[in-house]
Amino acid sequence: MPLYSFEGLTPNVHESAFIAPTATLVGDVIVEEGASIWYGAVLRADYAPVVVRRGANIQDGAVLHGPPGLTTEVGPGATVAHNCVVHGAILGAECLIANGSIVLDGAQVGDRALVAAGSVVAANGNIPAGMLAAGAPAVVKRVVTGSSAEFWVVANPPAYAELAQRHKAGIQWVAD
User: Fold this and answer.
1) pLDDT digits (tens, 9 = 90+) for 11-26
2) Fewer Cβ atoms within 10 A, N terminus or C terminus of the chain?
3) Could you read off the pLDDT of 46-73 as tens digits, one per residue?
4) Under CATH, to which class is 3-170 assigned?
């Protein structure tokens, strides 16, 4: 797995985390217990820390970075889905940032909230806990609980935890 030290800052990855061999981690990146960083994801912590809390998953093609002074933090059990950008934002526990979404500087997404696919959470935006937000800029649409979106918020963390362990144990390089 490509881990790079930058100006004395080196990624710190818990031994139980899954880091795909094509993911790239640079600088002050912290990946906690049971978290997973998937294929083609880039976590670049040269200006400010990038923290992936326990059991969170950063899916294929996602990019996490931040400007000077703004830590990027992904809460416990949270999901950053395929091809998302999280830049200097704070994501709450078990929230879900759906495919292709962007969360910008200083934004906060609350616990168990869902940002719909293709949405943009504006700089300094706030999506409250348990709410579904959509659009560009993202606006709150409804409560997650009791909606069809609830399935994804509840099912994704354990599904990706299990899948990460399967990949950790079962992927093999196939030579050209």
Assistant:
1) 999 999 999 999 999 9
2) C
3) 999 999 999 999 999 999 999 999 999 9
4) mainly beta
